[in-house]
Amino acid sequence: MIRSVMAVPLALSCLCAQTARMPPAPPSTAAEQAVVREITKIRMFPQAYAKYLRALGKDFEGTRWKPLHHVPIRTNEGRAAVEEAAEFLEQVRPINVNMAFSEELHAAAWDHMMDQGPTGQTGHVGTNGSTFDQRIVRRTPQPGMIGEVIMYGDETPRMAVIQLVIDDGVPDRGHRKALFNPEFRVAGAAIGPHKGYGIMTVVELADEIPSKP
User: Fold this and answer.
1) Fold (CATH) for 3-12+29-41+96-206
2) What pLDDT digit, counting tens, does each position of 169-193 carry?
3) Residues 6 or more apart from 66 whose CB is under 8 A from it?
4) pTM to 2 decimals?
5) Helix, coil or strand: residue 62
6) Would you kindly state where each structural domain of the chain is located, as residue ranges?
7) pLDDT at residue 109 above 80?
């Protein structure tokens, strides 16, 4: 079973000063960097991904999605959500921006993954009550617009991004709106174990990361 949770991008006017010094996060992995590259590619070449989705969307039995060489996925909306996502990708204007990978945003994503993964909880609030904007500002100079999307389940970078764009079961397609927000030009991802879903992928998004003073 796959589950994802979304946050509406937030424009920050001010936040409190940095909290206590955070332990260093490990450098990003190849898979984590690949997630951000997939976001860039689906934004740059949405029509190509639409064709891929049209092909994958044929493999349904009721609400069970059975893509080739993939374990079955239990969905809420069935084939309709995949077809609707393909239609969106066919019509959306490409975003010709190379999404930059940020180690600072990776560190903020890693903080949430390390905090939440062992508990099996889901969502954007940490066990200490922290919110994604607080986690990002702890790790970076204050950015402008920020957002966070989370994917629960063991997926390749491509399928993780595709499922966030499909946004099955989310009426307002908030993950999709975040990933296709042209204001977002920088991202960082963290992938790690999750007690309930096996693996979780956290992606932090920002319009820019100002230079450190």
Assistant:
1) Pathogenesis-related Protein p14a (3.40.33)
2) 999 999 999 999 999 999 999 999 9
3) 59, 60, 72, 73
4) 0.87
5) coil
6) 3-12+29-41+96-206
7) yes
